[in-house]
Amino acid sequence: MNALDKTLIIVEAALEKKSYDLVVLQIEHLASIADYFVIMSGRSTVQVAAIAQGIEERLQRDSVRPLSIEGLAPARWVVLDYNDVVLHIFHEPVRELYRLESIWSDAANVTLPEPLRSQAERLSLRGG
After folding, report:
1. Of 7, 42, 104, 124, which residue is the least packed, with the fewest Cβ within 10 Å?
2. Residue range of the domain that includes 113
3. Is residue 7 a contact partner of residue 110, using CB atoms and an 8 Å limit?
4. pTM of this structure
5. Domain count, the chain
6. Which of 56, 76, 49, 73 is nearest to 13 (CA)?
7. Has residue 125 been placed in a domain?
């Protein structure tokens, strides 16, 4: 499975769990750590953990397992590393504190295909 296909599965699974303010950044030209960052928020630590578990379960159906998972116990900032895709799930106050998108401001925003783009826009609190 290529990195973009994996990213789109992650986005779909995240949206099923009502993640919001979802952003996909293409970082392959900026860093060797991954091709894509997927960044999103949850309204509570319970939702953050549920989003992470939902994504992990969905990818396991395709025999894709994370290299590592960090932060699941406190669930304020969970990172799932799928080698070419690194996923960041934030509890909103923590996302505002770290402002990860601003650190990677040179990265290209990926335009999601429909219907994922419309779903993500409906779940956006940041105004698109």
Report:
1. 124
2. 3-119
3. yes
4. 0.91
5. 1
6. 56
7. no
